[in-house]
Sequence to fold (391 residues):
Amino acid sequence: MAGRYDTRDAGGGRLTEVLVTLGVVDPDHVSEEPEGGVARAAAALFVSLSGFALLIPNVTPLVSGGEPPIGVVLSVFGTVLSVALVVVGGLLYRSAFTTRNAVRISVWSLFGIVVLGAIMLGIIRYQAQLGTPMVAPTFTVAKVLAIGAVAHVIIGVYDARRVRAQQLAKEQRRVSVLNRMIRHNLRNETTVLGGHASLIAEGVDDPELRDSAEAVAKSAAVIGGLAEDAKRLQAAFERRPDESEPVPVEPLIEDAAEAARDSGAETAKVDVEPCAALADDRLATAVEELATNAPEHGASAVELSARETDGEIEITVADDGPGIHESESRVITGRDPETQLEHASGLGLWIVRATADAFDGWLAIETTQADDESASDDDAGTTVTMGIPAA
Fold:
């Protein structure tokens, strides 16, 4: 089975970026069904119905005709804003906002309509008392209310995003504390577990018990390694763009190749052009993760290369291992959501993905597995390429 998956192909381009910015969808293409409920439906329906109600007086002059050019322009503008409200109502129902924040946005819209409507009503009555009634009051009020409703929806979106950012910051602090506690306890307990398992393996004569004890020691080492991987993953997720600096690529590629040999690779070839990436020490961690991950999963040969292309440093690690399963590649590159039923098997590739994201780079995974009818055993392997801005 062969396939290439790239984080640059995972999204929907500029439209997705806009929707993420507005909060309509979550980043990384988290595909969860939005919460339903009467309150959410009512909030979305109010925004759409207010847009529909304002659409009628805005579009009527265009249908009837006879309007001067400036009147046509204003009517088109009001019509566009009214249609936008209708669409926003539907997007609000399906958005990533909680029901509470969806209601908050609709209340902001209502606030804009009520306040501007009251002001316009006061102006109309004031002019009538002066004996100079407003000409085409419906036309004027419809435009003002459409502008006010859209403006207050935007205010509501940013207000909801502010609230959500505060909630996420509090949750992040809790997760950070929990993460440190779990890592600390995992390291301690797995060290104890591995030590006792090694003592048992050395002190028993029964081959089966010795094998079992060695298996326990090996599992303890793996679990302890996961604790360290979790620490590196957290560091990779912490964006510090202001700390980025030119990082020579050749030394870290050489170090990663040596680490691959220490991890069991029979050969580790290096092909590096003189170049520097705009990054920090997390880049070396990510490249080493790729280089050591290959022999740990059965690869005997690893090839590392780096070159500058179109203002980017492309770092490639290729191996002759069994290949990464398609489902895992799709999850890592954001093509499919991370779920309980379908998730990546380890943290190594997540560390690499998080590192690429932290430096506004990209990650591509191309794998060929031996069960592909068109591939021989010699063709099987994985090529992972990480793109990082050049210094």
In short: The first strand starts at residue 2 and ends at 6.
